[in-house]
């Protein structure tokens, strides 16, 4: 099978391309820069958001399937669909869990409505707008799939939410604060597992046009994640619950998917258990620590240990192991 990938040189893209190659598919990228992969890949140098470049790459490669890694905004999505109409057997467009907001009724299935663009950050608003264009095309008979992914993690992750916890361990912190009992469950996805799911969306004969939610089958609470990070780095610490309106961390909200549709139509299963994926991520972080400029949305100073200690001393409640 011949696959055209728009983008594909970033964090997830490299794993997706390697997965396609491992399955024996022929891969061409439309990308602004080259990258190293586990096999031969043709790279067409160009802007994967440029409508003319998309049309030219489709005409040049005549792909069986097209993967839009960008999926950013209505105009870009429309350009992809226009180029693919009548020329590509299936298109897959990568969206994200944040289109459902931070307080959906869980588990979130494919019938759950997305929030409005006005209620979203710019990145999510662009995904929502692109989703709408693709799903309208699906209603008109276009063979397109919107794949909504959770928070990704893994080696080479440029954002790497796990660094919030890992840095505390590496700097010898003996305790950590988590909001509201650490009971939040935020769906995550190890990058190699999610790459496998993306390839299944491209290639499965049972896949149908429309929306699929994708994420790991094993879910963890925020407190369990904090314990898992410490365990993976051979560390012990005490975890304290503090009021959520006074303290937050990455993954400090509840949003998780119903995966029955992805299992049934795509045959999705975790190939690597999340515990092993976390250990690989933390091993990589230990060798490639993030700089002092690392930030996470909604956290003004993620490593203000003095403020964390004061809050724990004033109103923290130690959680049982």
Report on this model:
- Helices cover 36% and strands 17% of the residues.
- The mean pLDDT is 96.
- Helix 1 (11-22) packs across helix 6.
- With 321 residues, it is an alpha/beta fold.
- The chain has helices spanning 11-22, 51-61, 74-84, 122-139, 163-170, 191-203, 222-232, 260-266, 274-287, 305-315, and strands at 2-6, 26-31, 42-45, 65-68, 90-96, 144-149, 151-153, 175-179, 188-190, 210-213, 238-242, 317-318.
- Strands 3-2-1-4-5-6-10 form a 7-stranded parallel sheet, with helices on both faces. The protein has a 3-stranded mixed sheet with strand order 8-11-12, sandwiched between helices.
- It is globular and about 65 Å long.
Summarize, please.
The protein is α/β, with parallel strands linked by helices and 321 residues long.
Please outline the helices and strands.
Blueprint: E1 2-6, H1 11-22, E2 26-31, E3 42-45, H2 51-61, E4 65-68, H3 74-84, E5 90-96, H4 122-139, E6 144-149, E7 151-153, H5 163-170, E8 175-179, E9 188-190, H6 191-203, E10 210-213, H7 222-232, E11 238-242, H8 260-266, H9 274-287, H10 305-315, E12 317-318
Parallel strand pairs: 1-2, 1-4, 2-3, 4-5, 5-6, 6-10, 7-9, 8-11
Antiparallel strand pairs: 11-12
Helix pairs in contact: 1-6, 2-3, 3-4
Count, helices: 10
Q: What's the CATH first level of the largest domain?
A: Alpha Beta
Compute the number of strand runs. Answer: 12
Radius of gyration: 20 Å
Shape: globular
Proportion in β-strands: 15-25%
Into which percent range does the helicity of residues fall? Answer: 25-40%
Question: Which runs of at least 5 residues are low in confidence (pLDDT < 50)?
Answer: none
CATH H level, superfamily name of the largest domain? NAD(P)-binding Rossmann-like Domain
Give the total of domains.
2
CATH architecture of the largest domain: 3-Layer(aba) Sandwich
End-to-end separation: 50 Å
Structural class: alpha/beta
> What is the mean pLDDT?
96
Biggest sheet architecture: 7 strands, parallel
CATH topology of the largest domain, by name, is: Rossmann fold
**Spatial ordering of strands, largest sheet:** 3-2-1-4-5-6-10
Helix/strand order, N-terminal first = EHEEHEHEHEEHEEHEHEHHHE
* Quaternary organization: single chain
